[in-house]
Specification:
- This protein has about 270 residues and is an alpha/beta fold.
- Helix content is about 45%, strand content about 20%.
- It folds into two domains: about 1-100 and about 215-265, Periplasmic binding protein-like II (D-Maltodextrin-Binding Protein, domain 2); about 100-215, 3-Layer(aba) Sandwich (D-Maltodextrin-Binding Protein, domain 2).
- It has helices at about 1-20, 30-35, 35-50, 60-70, 80-85, 120-130, 140-155, 175-185, 190-195, 230-240, 245-250, and strands at about 20-25, 50-55, 75, 95-105, 135, 165-170, 185-190, 205, 215-220, 255, 260, 265.
- The strands form two sheets. Strands 1, 2, 3, 4, 5, 6, 7, 8, 9 and 12 form a ten-stranded mixed beta sheet that branches. Strands 10-11 form a two-stranded antiparallel ribbon.
């Protein structure tokens, strides 16, 4: 009887999930690589009774998927592109969820003397003037877009970033960090990806704490007016869960060696 009761209960659970609606969510690589997806999504699935299909891409590609209506919502970190998506009618709104910051990583020898600079633009200028190897994600991700903005602030044009020292790899953060480690090169990373990266080699964090390196992550539901077939109701359910007290605690308690990887700042 007991065994039969357990079997019946499991059958009901599996049947419920088999019949559950599916939210298609495009997220940044950091959300997965920093382990936050593993913390949040299983609990959200159980609490909401829905399936959540996670598509892991760079921010640029996530926004493209949202604009095409190929996903129901996105979680990304490139404010200007997010606001443009809302202004163009492809997303209903933008909801800030959490933040961390970008950091400049480089070889311990620090041939460009990045650690001695006072601003991020100065650090980028020092890398360029020393022609030290710099690894760029080159993938239209939020990190890549921030890097391009920093080069612009530093007055280093695209034509000045020559292939002998500027290596655009067209890959995610983990791959870019691995290449930088192999080349003993400089690279821009979000702090969570750096902290959870295992193949540090001779690299270390050389520059941080400039306000321009602030890194906000936001949730955007895809517009059902522009894309009538998206599961807008599921996106709103997940947004409500993501901005709940439970999610705040889970995000705030997600730490590595006692250090928080993200700071929750959703307004409920």
């Amino acid at each position: 009887m007991i065994r039969g009761g357990i079997l019946a209960a499991l059958t009901i659970i599996f049947a419920n999930f088999a019949n559950a609606e599916t939210l298609r969510l495009a997220v940044t690589t950091t959300f997965r690589n920093a382990g936050l997806a593993d913390v949040l999504l299983p609990i959200a699935r159980t609490d909401l009774g829905i399936e959540i299909e996670m598509i892991v891409v760079g921010t640029g590609q996530a926004i493209a998927l949202g604009r095409a209506g190929d996903v129901d919502a996105i979680l990304v970190h490139a404010r200007a592109a997010e606001e443009a998506m809302v202004a163009d009618g492809h997303a209903t709104h933008r909801r800030e969820i959490m933040y961390n910051d970008f950091v400049l990583i480089g070889p311990k020898a620090d041939s460009a003397q990045v650690s001695s600079t006072q601003a991020a633009a100065d650090a980028m200028r020092a890398i360029a003037s020393s022609t030290s190897i710099f690894v760029s994600r080159g993938d239209d991700s939020g990190t890549h877009l921030r890097e391009l903005m920093l080069w612009e602030k530093a007055g280093i044009t695209q034509s000045a970033r020559i292939v002998e020292w500027y290596k655009a790899v067209g890959a995610g953060m983990g791959t870019a960090l691995n290449i930088a480690s192999g080349l003993n090169a400089y690279v821009l990373s979000d702090r969570a990806s750096w902290l959870t990266f295992h193949n540090k080699g001779n690299l270390e964090l050389l520059f941080s704490d400039d306000p321009v390196l602030f890194n906000q992550y936001s949730f955007l539901p895809v517009s059902p007016t522009m894309h009538p077939y998206v599961h807008h109701n599921l996106a709103l359910k997940f947004e409500a869960w993501l901005t709940s007290e439970k999610a705040r605690i889970l995000i705030s308690n997600h730490r590595l060696n006692g250090m928080a990887l993200f700071t929750y700042n959703a307004v409920r």
